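Hi R.,

Here's the chain you asked about this morning:
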Amino acid sequence: MISGLHSLLRDSDAPSPAKVPSGVRIYAIGDIHGRLDLFSALSAAIDVDDASRGPADTTVILLGDLVDRGPESSGVIDHAMRWATERRVRLIAGNHEEMFLGAIENPDMLRHFIRIGGRETILSYGIEPERFDHATISELSDMLASAVPEEHIRYLKAGEEKIHIGDYLFAHAGVKPGAGIEGQRTEDLRWIREPFLSSKADHGAVVVHGHTISSEPEFRRNRIGIDTGAFASGRLTALRLEGKMRWTFEAFEVRGTIQTAIRTA
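And the predicted structure, written out as tokens:
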């Protein structure tokens, strides 16, 4: 059961010095990790919110790690692809998408993929747990290649490395300090933690990222982290940006019910 959108706007509406261009509205969604229930609720809340706010050039950005750890990775990809036929939805490929695509093609990478939550992804494609548990790596590789639809592979392969809009740069993990926006390597955009997380450097834009879990969204002068660990916490977070204002959206589980809320940041 999904409740309606609960408005939890705080009294202070302090604008951010960073901004997106006039007439542009951005919704960025953190790491989903197979939590289709939270993703479905949050995407529905975003559709309602966007429609209620009047015309805008709206883009939804998925910050990556759609797959692994949670139970419905295949369903999350289906939902993202379907949503993209209804509005502009851009996917940034995360490190888990990288590992998933690599595991489909390389049995050696499949071993590592399983250790970081790939078992749940493989089972989400209809492979029975008992069959999975008794299969060799070679057999699992064949199962995975047969089970994953080609359209899922094409969708994930088309994921972007970074997106730059206004004063914000969207990346899965973050950036390498000092490298500049155009000098970033794929490895850092998808995998970095330090020295990015503790850096106080000006990165050329405020970096909106996932990848590193925090109990609350992290607002720093040079970065905003919105991975609240959906697969374990039952809490999926998004960020809405318009002009100099920013808000957070949440879908969260309360005693088996999925609720949504919006707050000023």
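Residues 5-14 have pLDDT under 50 and may be disordered.

Let me know if you need anything else.
M.
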